[in-house]
Write a structure and sequence with these properties.
This protein is 44% helix and 19% strand. It is of the alpha/beta class and 419 residues long. The chain folds into two domains: 188 residues, 3-Layer(aba) Sandwich (Rossmann fold); 212 residues, Dihydrodipicolinate Reductase, domain 2 (2-Layer Sandwich), CATH 3.30.360.
């Protein structure tokens, strides 16, 4: 089927959606056809006009507008049938995302989002993976700060470690970052928790380290005594995992990121290592103070998860936690940054390091870059992408090293080397 639009952005009037539209206006190659989609025609036209004026790119005024609603299947199929690739910024995806994924899978249309919701990913894999395989659609969740640095950083670590001829047995990612917390992320956490209470199978997938893997039977059992437990939110001595001296505590996004990385490994026939242990943490410093910070962080994170799901406390928490659609100022977005470092060890003890870093708030500015470049790669670089059928994939398996090259060209730093 001939597609008239290269990339359609669904949710263009939202906070992250608008940032993504602004990035596309300034960085999409000349001749690429971009469309804006959402529920409200007049709001979409207003966003398009403002972006054209702010960017100085007059061709933005010619971008098509597509009116579609998350619960209106015919409108979503119309959107998908016109588009080579679709970006969705409309979350929580567990609540709003399913019909658009269905439409793209059936139409053979590539799709990316910034989802960090394991329950949603589990559901789309169960319902639409085989449909997307047959149509050739590459459905790629987690193309923002959740989980591109994790997934592409792990892919780069693997590429470097291939020279050893050995599988990796352990990889640990440490995160340094400065950025605001997204209201959409908080709402997604609330919705996923509420939905999991009604979905026992989905709840088990959330709790299983390999809950969204391609072939669960080929992965280690949860009670594998040799591999040991792989907690989502643990505390570690970083030197024991190949990193610098110090301590690290829980990383909020690890519960999602680790499962995406393990799905990549399973989709790649366990090329990283059939018994790879993988975890992600936030460094807290050295000595007794560093260790105390790690434990304090763990306690605060656990309390935060509990409080966010108490409806009566929501008005009080809204003083500190942003609501959906809210986000940091432009100055705050510019002053943010992130750097992730993967420390990997092979069977014989050889060590490798990979890094992914960028200037700009990770959940906003950097996410808009990662999301846009993923969609542009799917729409314009199909001859450079990994050879594989469609399906519910991951950034590493759907986009591969060609995506890493795009991200480098967009200003991210991505490296991998022997330690």
């Amino acid at each position: 089927m001939t597609k008239s639009i290269d990339v359609t952005l669904f949710g263009a009037t939202g906070f992250v959606g608008r940032l993504t539209a602004e990035y596309l206006a300034n960085h999409a190659p000349q001749g690429a056809t971009i469309a804006l989609a959402g529920r409200n025609q007049s709001k979409l036209e207003k966003v398009r006009s403002e972006i054209a004026q702010d960017s100085g790119v007059e061709t933005v005024r010619e971008w098509p507008i597509i009116v579609a609603d998350s619960f209106d299947a015919p409108s979503l199929h119309n959107l998908a049938e016109q588009s080579t690739a679709v970006i969705s910024t409309v979350g929580p995806y567990t609540r709003y995302g399913e019909e658009l994924v269905r439409a793209c899978a059936e139409a053979g249309t590539h799709y990316v989002d910034l989802c960090g919701e394991v329950l949603f990913m589990h559901r789309t894999i169960s319902k639409f993976h085989s449909t997307a395989e047959k149509s050739g659609a590459r459905i790629v969740h987690a193309c923002g700060f959740d989980s591109v640095p994790s997934d592409i950083g792990m892919l780069m670590l693997h590429e470097a470690a291939k020279e050893s001829g050995e599988p990796l047995t352990e990889a640990t990612m440490l995160v340094k970052m400065k950025g605001g917390l997204s209201g959409g992320t908080i709402d997604s956490m609330r919705v996923q928790t509420a939905e999991a209470k009604k979905d026992p199978e989905g709840a088990r997938a959330i709790g299983d380290p390999y809950g969204i893997s391609a072939d669960r039977a080929a992965d280690p059992a949860q009670d594998d005594s040799e591999l040991g437990s792989q907690p989502d939110f643990g505390i570690i001595n970083t030197a024991e995992h190949g990193g610098p001296q110090g301590w690290a505590g829980p990383f909020l996004m690890a519960g999602s990121n680790t499962r995406v990385v393990r799905r990549s490994n399973s989709l790649l026939d366990h090329a990283y290592g059939p018994r790879l242990r993988y975890g992600e943490y936030l460094p807290t410093g050295t000595g007794i103070k560093g260790r105390l910070r790690a434990f304090t962080m763990a306690g605060a994170l656990g309390l935060g998860f509990t409080l966010l799901n108490v409806d009566k406390l929501r008005p009080l928490l809204s003083r500190w936690v942003p609501e959906p659609g809210e986000g940091p100022s432009k100055e705050e977005r510019e002053n943010g940054f992130f750097k992730t470092t993967h420390y990997g060890t092979t069977e014989s003890g050889k060590r490798y390091i990979s890094t992914v870093s960028a200037q700009g708030d990770p959940g906003y500015k950097a996410t808009a870059v990662m999301l846009s470049e993923a969609a542009l790669a799917l729409a314009l670089d199909q001859d450079k992408l990994p050879e594989r059928a469609g399906g519910i994939l991951t950034p590493a398996t759907a986009l591969g090293t060609a995506y890493a090259d795009r991200l480098r060209a967009a200003g991210l730093t991505i490296t991998a080397e022997r330690a």
